[in-house]
Design a protein that fits this description.
By secondary structure, the chain is an all-alpha fold. It has four helices and no strands. The model has no long low-confidence stretch (mean pLDDT about 85).
Length: about 90
């Protein structure tokens, strides 16, 4: 792996940081890396793999109807699992 250092004007750096945050990236660096990977064509392979995985899942068994009640029950189950893993004082 190599390191690439780029000097940016402050305004551009702030816009990149904001875009990274809006897009869910942990850091501006990971956001810029994803842009470079996309430009280099690496994301096409990822898209193909994702599509293959999704198609496999479609054929993997019965589907689940996602209703507001299902989502609420799911959230409760996740919260129970989170709390069961915490140490009690």
């Amino acid at each position: 792996m190599c390191t690439l250092q780029i000097n940016l004007p402050e305004e551009l750096s702030e816009r990149i940081a904001a875009r990274a945050s809006e897009s869910g990236y942990a850091t501006p660096e990971t956001y810029v890396e994803s842009l470079l990977r996309a430009d280099a064509g690496e994301d096409q392979n990822l898209d193909e793999n994702l599509e293959k995985l999704l198609l496999e899942r479609l054929d993997s068994g019965p589907s689940i109807l996602i209703t507001p009640e299902f989502i609420e029950q799911f959230k409760q189950q996740v919260e129970l699992r989170r709390n069961s893993g915490k140490k009690r004082s």
